[in-house]
Each structure stands twice: as C-alpha cells, then as structure tokens.
Amino acid sequence: MINESDLEAWEYYDEVYKYKPMNFNEYQKLAAKTAIYSSTHQVLYPALGLAGEAGEVANKVKKMIRDGNFDREGVAAELGDVLWYIAALARDLNVDMQQLAIDNLDKLYGRKARGTLGGNGDKR
C-alpha cells in the first residue's frame, strides 16, 4: 500500500529528475525548497555554512596527504554541499546564479586576455 512517505519520495523524484540536465537557476530554485533556516538568519546562515562546507572539502583533501589515498566521492559530496550553500546565499542576496556564473567567466576571460590571471587583487 502507498503511504505518505512514498508520495513524498515520488514528488521529490518527479520534481528533481524531470529537470536533468538543469541550469544554475533551476538548481537554485529547487535547492531553495530544502532550506529550513529562519529568514532572520538570511545571508548569515548560508555564508557560515559555505565556509564550513569549504572547510570539509579542504579537510578531505588534506587527508590525502596524511593517509595517501584520495576520497574522490567524499570530496564530490562535499562539493555538492558547497553548491547548495552558494545557491542559498545567492538567493538571499537576490543574485541570479546563472548570471553569477556568466559574470565570473567574463571576469576570468578578461583577466586571461590581459595576462592577469595570476597575481593579487580584485581589479586585475
């Protein structure tokens, strides 16, 4: 017999998998449905979460040095968490993720054309 949990799972499957492949804005919209933090903690919560998850990525990579083996799947899973927090923070800042990605590539390709990919400073 189908129960409430089965229906929720089907709703999740239908909602997420019908968008494959998806763009950044679609991901941002779907990810927002899983955000459970209070609106009083907008920006702060995802910014701190992003820092924490980035630290977890670094920690898994660090363990490669210590243990001599690399947990590719573990790093990939943490990168997914990083992506979620980027989507949440961008949403809280009313930033379109698709445009964010385009603007970032424009900046980097401009630096490449000027020969300033290396170095320091935001205004290279």
Features:
5 helices, mainly alpha, 124 residues, 69% helix, Helix Hairpins
Structural description of this entry:
The chain has 124 residues and is an all-alpha fold. It has five helices and no strands. It has a single domain (4-114), classed as Helix Hairpins (Orthogonal Bundle), CATH 1.10.287. Helix 2 packs across helix 4 (72-92). The protein is globular. The mean pLDDT is 89.
So how many helices? Answer: 5
How are helices and strands ordered from N to C? HHHHH
CATH superfamily: MazG-like
Fraction of residues in helix: 55-70%
Report mean pLDDT, rounded to a whole number: 89
* Helical/strand content category: mainly alpha
* Beta-strand percentage range: under 5%
CATH architecture: Orthogonal Bundle
- As a whole number of angstroms, the C-alpha radius of gyration is 18 Å
User: Regions with pLDDT < 50 over 5+ consecutive residues?
Assistant: none
Tally of DSSP β-strands: 0
Q: What would you call the shape?
A: globular
Distance between the termini: 62 Å
Quaternary assembly: single chain
Largest sheet: none
Give the total of domains: 1
Q: Could you please say which CATH topology applies here?
A: Helix Hairpins
CATH class: Mainly Alpha
